[in-house]
Amino acid sequence: MIDSSAFQGKKAAYYTLGCKLNFSETSTFGKMLEDMGVITAKKGENADICLINTCSVTEVADHKCRQAIHRMVRQNPGAFVIVTGCYAQLESENVSKIEGVDLVLGANEKANLIQYLSDAWAQKFAVENGLPTNGEAQELSDSALHQHHSVKTKEIRTFQPSCSRGNRTRYFLKVQDGCNYYCTYCTIPFARGNSRNPSIESLVAQCEQAAAEGGKEIVITGVNIGDFGQTTHERFLDLVKAMDKVEGIKRYRISSLEPDLCDDDLIAYCAESRAFMPHFHIPLQSGSDEVLKLMHRRYDKALFAHKVNLIKEKMPDAFIGVDVMVGCRGETPECFEECYEFLKSLPVTQLHVFPYSERPGTAALKIPYVVDEKEKKMRSKRLLELSDQKTQEFYAQYIGTEAEVLFEKAPRGKAMHGFTKNYVRVELSPAFAKEEYDNQLIKVRLGDFNHDKTALKAELVDSL
């Protein structure tokens, strides 16, 4: 039984690493604690509860997680510290040994965060005050803290619903979790389990709730969202069609979608839909068929190029983001040049470039060809320069045009930012920015680049 009275007025601090899905889940955890009477600690305040939601996509991510945990413990002496997320799942024993950590929740346990927190909180209070302890609570706490590291991937079955915006304007709706793909370089299936999802009906209900709360834009998130339907035998396209009917939601954005799951019918529907934006993010990982085979990816260059070209044919203004990995095992200089030229030839808008990182237990470690760190940095630099060039060329097309922008709240006296339908970032100077523009669709005329070329300056036309 959960005693919420013990949490009334307590302060919580949150720290999230990694993907949009993690940020969505952290926001949901925050809402759950808020319903228990917990308030968010302000900057500089000492928190009673600290929650760190971790990532483990690279070795650098692991290091950042450890740093974040130590920092939260140090900055909030005496706080009850919870660690969850992918790093917590994969390295639970090591995390549980970090001084100051009270609770480690893996992929299964995080769905019952409040129950675990309540029991472990009561146990800690009893121990610190010399009171009789609850053996059952101790057993539950120990189970969460020490035993989930032995859970096999196929045993990760829980699904934690999440549709939250936290302190953002846009809502992030989790429609799917886990992955069945097992690419040779990736640990995500081990951290999050196999693909699973809730029903279309339940997700539509969450969209309707977001609309009732005044939400205007929803970003669809998940680990492998195109694989939606493994649990319920429904299709991602059917989900998209159902969500498009929700009145009040003006914009939907689809986050990362695997090329082989980016169905031609889906592209055609989005082009004609009421609210799905001309904005796609498609992971390529490598523009070399040889490397794609080594990665165990489920497509080749030809299929990827077909998807990109079809999107641009149906939606000429579409923003297309692409994930690309550099320096993975097996990526010879010739393979990288092939990848570079392939990306250069495609009408894509932006590259999310990240260097390959060795992950323990992955099949990629069996591939003999290794790229050194210096070469990885050089390859990353070239692709990032290509990305900047493509993004700026895309933005430049819209200078002098009018567009609707959904603005996001900014600190008083600072420029406001927002995005057009096709994800061009827009900046409104402090002289014209108003608090009431937050979460509002405003018509603007797009001007030249801002000082660091990360956005186009805007002049107000009128508000809609």
TrEMBL record:
Which InterPro entries does the record match to this protein?
A: Elp3/MiaA/NifB-like_rSAM, Methylthiotransferase, Methylthiotransferase_CS, Methylthiotransferase_N, Methylthiotransferase_N_sf, MiaB-like_bact, rSAM, rSAM_horseshoe
Q: Which SUPFAM superfamilies match?
A: Radical SAM enzymes
Cofactor needs: [4Fe-4S] cluster
What positions does the domain MTTase N-terminal occupy? Answer: 10-122
* Alphabetical list of CDD domains matching this protein: Radical_SAM
Which protein are we looking at?
tRNA (N(6)-L-threonylcarbamoyladenosine(37)-C(2))-methylthiotransferase MtaB
What's the gene? mtaB
Q: Which PROSITE patterns match?
A: MTTASE_N (PS51449), MTTASE_RADICAL (PS01278), RADICAL_SAM (PS51918)
For this chain, one GO molecular function annotation is:
4 iron, 4 sulfur cluster binding
Q: Which SMART domains match?
A: Elp3
Q: What residue stretches are annotated with the Radical SAM core domain?
A: 165-393
